[in-house]
Prior knowledge:
Blueprint: H1 3-6, H2 9-12, H3 20-23, E1 29-30, H4 58-68, E2 75-78, H5 80-92, E3 99-102, H6 109-116, E4 120-123, H7 134-139, E5 146-150, H8 162-172, E6 177-181, E7 203-208, E8 221-225, H9 227-236, H10 244-253, H11 256-280, E9 286-289, E10 296-301, H12 304-313, E11 316-317, E12 319-320, E13 330-334, H13 338-349
Parallel strand pairs: 1-11, 3-4, 3-5, 5-6, 6-7
Antiparallel strand pairs: 2-8, 7-8, 9-10, 10-13, 12-13
Helix pairs in contact: 4-10, 5-6, 5-9, 11-13
Amino acid sequence: MSIAKLARRVVRALTPYQSARRIGGQGHVWLNANEAPLAYPFTVEGSKLNRYPECQPAEVIDGYAAYAGVNPSQVLVSRGADEAIELLIRTFCEAGQDQILICPPTYGMYAISAETCGVGIVEQPLTASRQPDWPAITDRLSDVKLVFLCSPNNPTGDLVGREGLTALLEAARDRAIIVVDEAYIEFCPEASVVDLIAQYPNLVVTRTLSKAFALAGIRCGFTLANAEVIAMLAKVIAPYPIPEPIAQIAAQALSPMGLELMEERVLELNRQKARFKAELATLPCVLEVFEDKGNFVLVRFTDGAAVFAAMKAAGIILRDFSSKPGLEHCIRVTVGYQNEMDAVLAVLRDQPQASV
């Protein structure tokens, strides 16, 4: 018997999530993973490294609670928001019995985590205006335990409409958990729905330090929810999810100085994004520029394959979404600093207008 046959059937059939690092590439301008352009130095003190870390480091929990405007009992820290997604599925869904609902095109880890856990997936595509189909989702609430909504949505950049969300939360009371993924919310903080947690115990918000905080390498994410939800997730999470060095760096990032650096970074990246979008509007190879609420811009080109190939030849690594439904010829460009965006624009200016 081969080792593969010993694995669970669902794992044998699983196609792993194609992360930016897994796809890889060769180049000197990396704008494919929605990372921050530069790292900032942090210090790590090693006197506690011989001890197991706290499961939920108080300094990190208290720091993020203060930043997000919630109580510490409403915060769980995990190995990135990806672990938070899996924890929610493992906590609230029975394998082989329950289902989650997603709204493609959206972040791929919702489906991958569900498949890995043996949980079913209901797909309710976004509407033509790239909003969740609220009536259709409401009609499926009896069939699902969790609804995942991404706001700003990756890869389209759209925000989830607040009015539709509150109506869904009302309809889902005592029926389903509504999860809003706010990985990119620092780029449009006024759009956060964290304030609704006080009113809706079935609302969960996931966050991360990977984007605006420029800490993708430490894998540190957060779940914000009613204290009862957090207590349930704490039963499932690994005993030592946050290594001591990660906790130290996260605490520094959430300090007044760390928050000031993050806000300065967001201002600069939003400024570069606005300049980039204005330039895109003048280019004949561009058909459509999507919403821009995150640190990325999704662009539909007249010939996406040609653009992607030209970027690759120039050493610029972007993310191709043309295989996703409704995103033909679409490429996602992470917003970097001016020299990086100028390099992208230089390639695009050489692209001819093509027939569609």
